[in-house]
Amino acid sequence: MKALLVGLGSAGFSWYKRLRDKGLLAAVVETDASMKEKMGDDHFPFYTSLAEALEKEQLDFVVNVTSPMAHTVVNNAAFDKKLPVLCEKPISFDYEESIVVVERAVKENIPFMIAENYRRHAAIRKLKQLLDAGAIGRISTMDIVFYRYHHVERKYTVSLLDDIGVHHFDMIRYLTGVEGKSVYSDMYNPISGWDEEGAIINTSALIEMENGIKVSYNGSISSRGKQTPWHGDWRIEGTEGTIQYENQVIHLIKDGVEEQISDYSGVDTSDTLAEFLASLQEKRDSETSGTDYLKSQTLVHYAKLSSAEGRKLEIKYPN
């Protein structure tokens, strides 16, 4: 299996090293020719033209690590060649455009996966295992807090839900095993934030999931206090106990007894690349296929609409 890596920025270079070290890299595309210096003495073909690379190289799949604004152009170019794509999130910042991209992949039966990595961490897999096994009975509520100071420069405006919160919304879906029914949210820039057009720094959201599960989410990327992990801190209440996931440690509280869970044996700890390759080999949908990821993006989309309209909204999913 050989991959074409498109994009050699900070995230792209991490993918470059991963693909190179696993013997999966065929060639690199990066419009900024100066980026080639990152490759050092490596002699992989380097292109500034995606069309030229797709024409000249013998490829099995494409890894799309370009800026979000370029994702759709790259994805469609790969689809034109019937090549499977592993794409960094988001599919597109434009929700309707994301739907069209996923529809094309499904219609043409082209494997398309989004590199949604938070749910693949060992502790999260173990947390899912505990919940599915009924460790706290039936899930009742989830309370999630996320506080970081994350003012970074990108080629696009960084906003909480688009850039980080979508991971948390994906984790909500993954851990509950059900979809969102409605959302009421307030998205805003606090006084302690920064003045950047289009930036949405803080979000508070109440989400009703199927099966009556209620979720509260409070997040900020302008917090100067104690920082939570990137996963956030979670309190999951059930009919028979509680799980607190704090500082990436699982605490199971049942019948007044607290147990710290640190044994992650028996969980699937493969990363997004391994899952993508396995899905290709096994001819199945990947766990975070474009179709599945679109449901997480739908939660984000309706949270934005709810905040803009100032009311609770029913969530409607694409067909």
Structure commentary:
By secondary structure, this protein is an alpha/beta fold. The chain is built from 8 helices and 15 strands. The chain has helices at 10-21, 50-56, 71-80, 95-107, 122-132, 160-176, 272-282, 290-309, and strands spanning 3-6, 25-29, 46-47, 61-64, 85-87, 112-114, 139-147, 180-188, 202-209, 214-220, 233-238, 242-246, 249-254, 257-261, 313-314. Helix 4 (95-107) links the parallel strand 5 (85-87) and strand 6 (112-114). Helix 3 (71-80) packs parallel to helix 4. The longest helix is centred in the C-terminal third of the chain and has 20 residues, at 290-309. The protein is globular, with a radius of gyration of 20 Å. 39% of the residues are buried.
Instruction: Note the run of SSEs as H and E.
Output: EHEEHEHEHEHEHEEEEEEEHHE
The helix-and-strand class reads alpha/beta
Per DSSP E runs of 2 or more residues, the count of β-strands stands at 15
- Number of helices in the DSSP assignment: 8
**What is the radius of gyration?**
20 Å
Q: How far from one another are the termini? A: 33 Å
Poorly predicted runs: none
User: How is the biggest beta sheet arranged?
Assistant: 9 strands, mixed
Mean pLDDT: 95
Overall geometry: globular
Helical content class: 25-40%
Work out the strand percent. Answer: 15-25%
Strand order, biggest sheet?
A: 14-13-12-11-7-10-9-8-15
